[in-house]
Specification:
The chain has about 325 residues and is an alpha/beta fold. The chain is built from ten helices and eight strands. The chain has an eight-stranded mixed sheet with strand order 7-5-6-4-1-2-3-8, with helices on both faces.
Amino acid sequence: MQDPVLYIVIPCYNEEAVLPVTSGLFLEKLRALTAAGKIADSSRVMFVNDGSKDSTWAIIQGLSAQDKHFCGVCLSRNRGHQNALLAGLMTARQFADAVISIDCDGQDDINAMDEMVDEFLAGVDIVYGVRAKRETDTWFKRTTAEGFYHVMRLLGADVVFNHADYRLMSRRALDALAEFKEVNLFLRGLVPLVGYRCSSVYYQRAERIAGESHYPLKKMLALAFDGITSLSVKPLRIITAAGALVSAVSFLAIIWTIVTKLCGYTVQGWTSLICAIYFLGGVQLLSLGVIGEYVGKIYSETKARPRYIIQETTWEEEESPPKK
């Protein structure tokens, strides 16, 4: 049996500080897997430049010129991590039997790839890289991140706890993922929907090797909200339930008001009235905001704009990266 072709897909956005360091680590791992007879020599490390404003693309081009095991894809503009990752996955599946996605910062343990490849060779289509612990995170980040996974599960989304975007997918799993046409991408939730045989490998996450994180709290919250609204309609049902509860309480309050009036009690009621107005106004605005988020997603989906546009690659179209 011929050795499978593996592509390591790495989204990059303004990574000029860390790319020269981690690229060597990725190449070393690729060569080690090849030397062990697990993958073919035509395997590649594919960088996806997500509209970087620094010299990231120039570095990728230089790496590709120096070693045939590097190749690169450049998007026409910044489309965000999820779209850049999808662009790499969809491009790599044309040439590879399996694809491993990983971030460029070097925090994810690349040695976990050995076990991922072993699982793939044993017939597994999707192998999730899962953090065993979150000791390198601050208390705030650890609490909010784990809380996010718990909330997602409570809302009915099928996500793998403590798994980000470090995973292996077989070609047939990627072909199945290509059938999902969502414009609003949340791959951590979409990949489990593919099905097929899956497993997990556990690893320790290290500190970022160089550069700064491109996922501040604002982006993390946006990603979390995108994930929730893309995978679950339970927030809408919660609004419905809350509306029914408030209506029931309001009905009881009306009865109480009528009874007190008939009994001759005179109550000023200014404080209770103001509190009720503020409460109901806040509930209504929050409900409208959540509903508006879903309407906005429907608007984006109906336009069906392309999720990414590839501007150029490090290889000529007629000279695609060699297949196995």
